[in-house]
Specification:
By secondary structure, the chain is α/β, with parallel strands linked by helices. 42% of the residues lie in helices and 12% in strands. Helix 2 crosses helix 6 and helix 3 packs antiparallel against helix 6. The two termini are 34 Å apart. Bound molecules: zinc ion. The site of zinc ion has 4 residues, from loops.
Length: 266
């Protein structure tokens, strides 16, 4: 796969187009919140890795956890392939993500292998703890990744990162906190031109479309993707948009590299 090839060839985080890691809790979370932006970055020649913490093993009422996990890994891989991106599953389990030292090591190792310059991940506050704890683990891994003496205790460990990557949070579900209050994004990317690619990627998650159809009677995943992207787009006067906040606290890089890369005025 193109992304995987690029990872083997490049160990530098300073040469050529920036390397991107989009990591969220479950298969289709990345697609829903930032696939349009990833498609822009892919067009610019960025090597992209899409990672999910779990293989979505609770997302079915008809298959066993292992069966649906296998199906969903395949769907996520097919979706990533549309961008020429690599797909990685960290093999946590749905509703079971915890912040402990074993989890820290696994997530840090994922970052050290992907060697990203820019990381997109789950927001700190969202509707479920899998999302929130993913956010915590990824934020910590951006820091620990560059600490030379931090051991991930993983098989065949990758070398430490050269520095802390630029870290961004995607939207929470419906852009609200746990009390239902709107969370103001830092900036919104116009994804009108790449929206078709985003929908194609979402469509790869066929098992979820079936599951939601069964649970709710309609194909909600595609309609929700359309509705939410349109709502964010409207805020900046375009058809479709995706919103982000940047983690700018000490000692994370605070210049907006993602916006600069997308040629945005923020
Ligand atoms: Zn999720």
């Amino acid at each position: 796969m193109a992304g995987g090839e690029a990872i083997k060839k490049s160990t530098s985080s300073t040469e050529g187009s920036p390397r991107i890691l989009a990591i969220h809790a479950h298969p289709d979370d990345v697609e829903f919140q930032c696939a349009g932006t990833l498609a822009h970055l892919a067009k610019q020649g960025c090597a992209i890795t899409i990672a999910t913490m779990t293989p979505g093993d609770c997302g079915s009422a008809e298959y066993s956890a292992e069966e649906i996990a296998e199906i969903r890994r395949g769907e996520a891989r097919a979706s990533a392939a549309i961008l020429g991106a690599e797909y990685v599953c960290l093999e946590f389990r749905d509703l079971s993500i915890t912040v402990d030292n074993v989890s820290r090591g696994k997530v840090c190792e994922c970052l050290r292998r992907a060697r990203p310059d820019i990381v997109l991940t789950a927001p700190p506050v969202d509707y479920m703890t899998d999302h929130e704890l993913t956010s915590v683990l990824v934020r910590e891994a951006c820091f620990s990744g560059s600490v030379p003496n931090y051991s991930t205790r993983q098989w065949s460990p990758a070398p430490p990162l050269r520095g802390i990557p630029h870290l961004y949070y995607v939207d929470s579900i419906e852009g609200v906190d746990t009390f239902g209050r709107p969370v103001k994004p830092d900036f919104i990317v116009d994804v009108t031109a790449t929206f078709e690619t985003k929908q194609k990627m979402l469509a790869c998650h066929e098992s979820q479309r079936n599951w939601l159809r069964k649970q709710h009677g309609i194909d909600e995943s595609m309609a929700n993707g359309e509705r939410w992207s349109a709502a964010r787009g409207k805020e900046i006067g375009v058809k479709y948009g995706e919103a982000f906040r940047q983690h700018t606290g000490h000692p994370y890089p605070a210049d907006n590299r993602l916006a600069a890369l997308l040629d945005m005025k923020t």
